[in-house]
Amino acid sequence: xxxxxxxxxxxxAIFESTLELVRENGFHGTPMSLVAxxxxxxxxxxxxxxxxxxxxxxxxxxxxxxxxxxxxxDGDDETRDFESRFFTFWKKHYHFYVQNPNALYFIxxxxxxxxxxxxxxxxxxxxxxxxxxxxKTGIETGVLKxxxxxxxxxxxxSSVVTTAKVSLTKKVEIGETExxxxxxxxxxxxxx
Amino acid sequence: xxxxxxxxxxxxAIFESTLELVRENGFHGTPMSLVAxxxxxxxxxxxxxxxxxxxxxxxxxxxxxxxxxxxxxDGDDETRDFESRFFTFWKKHYHFYVQNPNALYFIxxxxxxxxxxxxxxxxxxxxxxxxxxxxKTGIETGVLKxxxxxxxxxxxxSSVVTTAKVSLTKKVEIGETExxxxxxxxxxxxxx
DNA sequence: TTTTCCCAATTGAACGTTCATTCGGTAGGC
DNA sequence: GCCTACCGAATGAACGTTCAATTGGGAAAA
Lengths: 192, 192
Known about the structure:
The first copy, chain A, has nine helices and no strands. Chain A is mainly alpha-helical.
């Protein structure tokens, strides 16, 4: 095993530990000592990889972003018609969040906190960009309404996030029927 | 001025102070000493009204809820047709959030934090209930799609919140046109 | 091949600070 | 004289961060 892989492993352990603890206890309820313990490293080790707690949290956010990015890209069959591509797309995003609840809650906490202000990638939300790029073709080909692209992307994205949160908190049982219904609502809303 | 009103004034000052500081610095970046200073009271005084910092924050959340509740109820003209009532309703909600950004950000931080788990009013979200009650008549009269009421309410509510956040962060300039557009997307999505 | 040396990785106890909370005391209305 | 509202310095625990010490693997020297 190479030096680099070991390095990556420790870093990853710290990330995973932080992710879980922040989800459970929030930013302020997550002491570095606990992060260290859960990650199986010494407290000082964290500071070998990150300058401070804030840096760690901002880095974790970036790490989650890129993981999400990778997951969300593949599996799009461009030969199919735009409508069914939209539904597949929407549901895939939904499932990603449901399968990664820790990431969802961390990110939601993060973007609503003052951390987000200081976040370098704030402007270039790649996750939003993936959606935007997809919707763009829909608008250009006249399948979707003429509308500010960014605005439409955010609306679609927020519907996914909202539905995932509803599902995870079990406020409403989300089966295949409900999933289809919600996606349909958004589709009917944006289609020309 | 009655005893009660004086009491209300100090309490309110503490609430407002907390609200502003939490919005700016997050929960963990808001020490009680600062809350006290900004509210113009002694640190100990806060503990005359609240058992702990957590209690204060949960109480503030309840306080904001009831203020929102009051604001959002009035101004509905039941004689008009359902569609235009929906648009007025949607926009009124939007404007409330835009005019109370501190409340919006506080609540968004709150509901995504572990505080929310321990929140007694978690189940009975009155704000969601107002929306639900309104949409209910729409579903019953066949103007809206047949769909889980709670789910529809949450979707509508989240679209309002999302749009307000977009507007406040100026990611997209939200004028009357854009506002109408977004409301239209949601309306087209839920209408029968 | 063996020995030496170096440096990055790692440790965890110790430090200094920050912060929530406490508490003894004052003021004033009833 | 009692009770409620209020004060703010003092307290002690918790926490982020530091640092002197240790390890181990690999490169350079022998």
